[in-house]
Amino acid sequence: MATQSYHLYYQITFISTFLLFIPHTTQLQSSQSWSLLRIQHLLNYPSLLSQWHESTDFCYGAPQNAPASVVCYQDSVTQLHIIGNEGTPPLPKTFSMDSFITTLTRLPDLKVLTLTSLGLWGPLSAKISRLSNLEIINISSNYFFGAIPHEISRLSNLQTMILDYNMFSGQVPDWLTNLPLLAVLSLRNNTLDGNLPDSIGSITSLRSLTLSLNNLSGDVPDLTGLKNLQILDLENNSLGPNFPKLGRRIITVVLKGNKFSGGLPPDVGTFYLLEHLDISSNRFVGPFAPSLLSLPAIKYLSIEGNRFTGTLVRNMSCNEELEFVDLSENLLSGNVPACLDPDNQHSKAVLYSGNCLGGTQNSAGKQNPFVFCQNQALAVGIVTPRKEGNTEKKKKTGVAVGIVGAVALGVLLGAILVFFALRRKNARKASKRAPRRLVEHASSAYPSKMLTDARYISQTAKLGALGIPSYRSFSLVDLEAATSNFEKSNLLGEDSYGQMYRGRLSSGTLVTIRCIQVKKGQPTLNFNHHIETISKLRHRHLVSALGHCIEYNLEDSTVTQLFLVFEYVPNGDLRSKISHGEDGQKLSWTQRISAAIGVAKGIQFLHGGIIPGLFANNLKIMNVLLDQNLGSKIRSYNLPMLSENTKAEMHGDKIDIYDFGVILLEIVSGRPITSYYEVQIMRSQLQSAIASDGAACRRAIADPEACNICSDESLRTVMEICLRCLSKDPTQRPSIEDVLWNLQFAAQVQEGWHADSGSSEDSPLSPSQPCRATN
Ligand SMILES: *[C@@H]1O[C@H](CO)[C@@H](O)[C@H](O)[C@H]1NC(C)=O
Ligand SMILES: *[C@@H]1O[C@H](CO)[C@@H](O)[C@H](O)[C@H]1NC(C)=O
Questions:
Q1: What rounded mean pLDDT belongs to the chain?
Q2: How far is the CA of 764 from the centre of ligand 2 (A)?
Q3: pLDDT above 90 covers what percent of the chain?
Q4: Which residue of 15, 24, 476, 693 has the smallest Cβ count within 10 Å?
Q5: Is 361 exposed, middle or buried (0-12, 13-18, 19+ CB in 10 A)?
Q6: Could you tell which of 293, 312, 313 is best to mutate to test the pocket of ligand 1, judged by most ligand atoms within 8 Å of the CB?
Q7: Ligand 1, atom 10: nearest CA belongs to which residue?
């Protein structure tokens, strides 16, 4: 009977919703249809818009991913994408940029705009600033010329601006700091010149800065203030001479083809997230620090075409993840490190011709005789001062300072790199033929919308949302079909906000559907904003949002109910694989670290991968689910719709770090932790176990099922980071990057230990050995 009434209830709401839905989602305002047709006219009726007619249903008509597409929200265009063919010639003389932009501004809700390879020509009209909702613009590969108009600084919602392959001239604007959300700026291949404005160093929201292929010159302003900057591409300008000052979290640096000279600054050795470093074709001199090869994240390194000196030896160590190394055309001598030799397990490309290297096994390319490098190196030493000194004396001090500086620099760089090298060395101890690392590389997190709409970042970034079906809006019919009319047997649970159902979409995808009763009087504007944020919550380590469905009240058109559709993750929660071991199967130590890394990456995405970030997510081990491959996914995070206060709390990020610490504690101990009191007890046990010099003491705390085969160093690393996460003072808790780094280190150590389990120092101790903790 209950099911029957349910059924009826939903049928009624279905009918009422359906009636309301048609006018809301399928019919574009006629003025906007007119504007789209006018755009077609101004673009000279390109064949890719041949489907556009007066009767076209723009919001539902075009398939996704077509070269021309329109996305609407309610009855207004929010996205317009028209992607022409490469090499489209300029539009005829009669084309008027001003009319074109004026027409565009008649789509006032436009948030995402792609107009590429359409032959648009002329100065970019200042009227573009009327599109006040614009978040992403990509007008690459046209014939825009003149300065980038100052009026763009009024687009306060702008997050991504891509003006690549045009003919914009003048200087890089100094008003970009007025765009508070600007995350991606790409001005590749224009004719910009002059120095970079210092203000570029204060666009704190910036994540990706691409200025390659222009005529920029002079030193790069200090960018250490750009804490979010991950990608810097300055290829082929005339910038220099000093290596840019960058924050430690940088991932990609391309300085190829500029006028950088002198030595590399020592802090490059602290860029622990650096994956891609290309400083080729510059004028760098000084000793090459081979430890660059063993930076913890490095995959791509090119120093080709500089005058780096120094002796390489066979037994240097490299990051196993290296894919490409180009040392060609420098003044290096000695032997190519063995870790760069080709082997069957990794497809590495290594280039080193044009040096003075010997003893290489495969074709080393052309090498110079040793004396050549020796003489050139001496010459490099003498030619250092770039500014012509007035007197002989000045010149000499210049040289002396230069040399001392270079030596000091080298020592410092060496010291810092030794730190990493040592950590790695430990990890790699005897892992010569170790199995491939289980841990994936830190994939940077970006708003998925930016990813799909402005494919701007390297391959690694895309991994974040890889394999998750694209976000869409559902009809109630879809959801009823998926849940057999919300049948009881599909009910997964219920909380104060509403019910949660399991369902299967017509595509076969299993989903979880959350029904949220909307409070009366919740402003609709806020609501759309929340939906926008939810649509970005898509990441490999989150139970990701797949879409939504909105139900309205017939009388006053307010929202009454909201359905959020999420992935369905089949393999149970993390606790059941850690401390309960329901099916008798508990995760091994390696699997535990890997699960923890997944959770940390999910947190990293919630904090930094979307704007604004989501903090204070009330993370719990029960809310970490595992997929078929035991990959972890965070289920319940601070959904904007449900959180009362949307403001980021003080230390919100550090609250999450603490909660993560509690999860880690359970992962290590294998005991369910349910109270603050238990956390305090275990915390102090952990403290003395870490301080103790007996491995047995640590092992006594750890879950014996996981840690009968685990390396003490790996265990201690996890315990240490766990303890730091649980610091009482939030400011003492580590950053999420720090957490990730340590967990990945622990994973490597464990793997190296596996490969080398004969090692006496680390061999498993009998758990019965007494534990004498030093307090
Ligand atoms: C490399 O081998 C040399 C001896 O051939 C030794 O002195 C040096 O310490 C070794 N370096 C490393 C990093 O193992
Ligand atoms: C701009 O849009 C074009 C066409 O969709 C795309 O190929 C290009 O990658 C985009 N540019 C960036 C930097 O994302």
A1: 79
A2: 54
A3: 42
A4: 693
A5: exposed
A6: 313
A7: 315
